[in-house]
Amino acid sequence: MSDLPERLSLREVGPRDGLQNEDPVSTAAKVALIDTLSATGVGRIEAVSFVHPKAIPQMADAAEVWAAITPNPDVRYSALVPNLRGAQRALAAGFAEIEVVVSASDTHNRKNLNRSTDESLDDIAAIVDLVHDQGATCQVIVATAWGCPYEGDVPVERVVSVASRAMRDGADSLAYGDTTGMATPTRVINLVGETRSAHPDVPLLLHFHNTRGTGLANVLAALQLGVSEFDASVGGLGGCPYAPGATGNIATEELVHMVEDMGVATGVDLEAMIAAAAEAERIVGRTLSSQVLRAGPRTRTIG
Ligand code: ZN
């Protein structure tokens, strides 16, 4: 375990990826959750997505949420967008970090974004230019990087080729999303290895869903390869539209709990993140999947 990164850059995605997959909650509750998360020590928060309100009504109030939060100067906030229109709205709202998503699987991209992967990549080239013109940064997230609910396995070469096109078109950084929890440690090692061979210096962030219970195992495999940027959602908030009853992202407090004990700093106050998970649970009104939320830290004693 000697080669682990000393410090992780965690991005909290509960307010976006989590709440987008829950029953709609009020604008005030979203603002309160983001403000609570902003005080946990987490360095990055994906606050909202600018998607068509008919497609994802849960995010229809994105601009209102962003205008109402109390930004913490120590936190980097980002917005996810699916297309040029979303990027324009995110920039108009004042976001300095934009994430644009494209699926490696053509079928998933058509279902999600109504166009082929190649058409989305053409759009992304224009989006990157627009974002840079406004002085913001653009991360390209390749979704279904470890498999697609329609097509099954997605070849590693296909994922790397989508990522390579985005990098050629000027993306500032890259993220891989395990959209429906199909990754295993071996598949993580293969994809990260092939990506590093093609792009040794690109900042790479990984986004795992715990749909099938492999989330933290995947993180550990990536840590051992030196990957130091991960998404996670407070409480394990969220679900998976393709796997009814499934859990959402890996839970932030479970990730923090594990890696801090391995000597990897996150900057996150674990007790504060557990309290935020309890708040998330109250907001969505159902029991969340996080086991650290239930059991507490390993050193919590009885009495
Ligand atoms: Zn996700």
Quaternary status: single chain
Radius of gyration: 18 Å
Percent range of helical residues: 40-55%
For the residues shown, what is the average pLDDT? 96
Q: Look at the helices and sheets and give the structural class.
A: alpha/beta
Could you list the spans in which at least 5 consecutive residues all have pLDDT below 50? none
Task: Walk me through what this model shows.
With 303 residues, the protein is of the alpha/beta class. It has a single domain (9-295), classed as Aldolase class I (TIM Barrel). It has twelve helices and eight strands. It has helices at residues 14-20, 27-38, 62-68, 84-93, 106-113, 117-133, 156-168, 185-198, 215-224, 252-261, 270-284, 291-295, and strands at 9-12, 44-49, 76-81, 97-103, 137-143, 173-178, 204-208, 229-232. The protein has an eight-stranded parallel beta barrel with strand order 1-2-3-4-5-6-7-8, surrounded by eight helices. Helix 3 links the parallel strand 2 (44-49) and strand 3. Helix 2 (27-38) runs antiparallel to helix 11, helix 7 packs parallel to helix 8 and helix 10 (252-261) runs antiparallel to helix 11 (270-284). The longest helix is centred in the middle third of the chain and has 17 residues, at 117-133. It starts with 8 loop residues before the first strand and ends in an 8-residue tail after the last helix. The relative contact order is 0.15. The site of zinc ion has 6 residues, from loops.
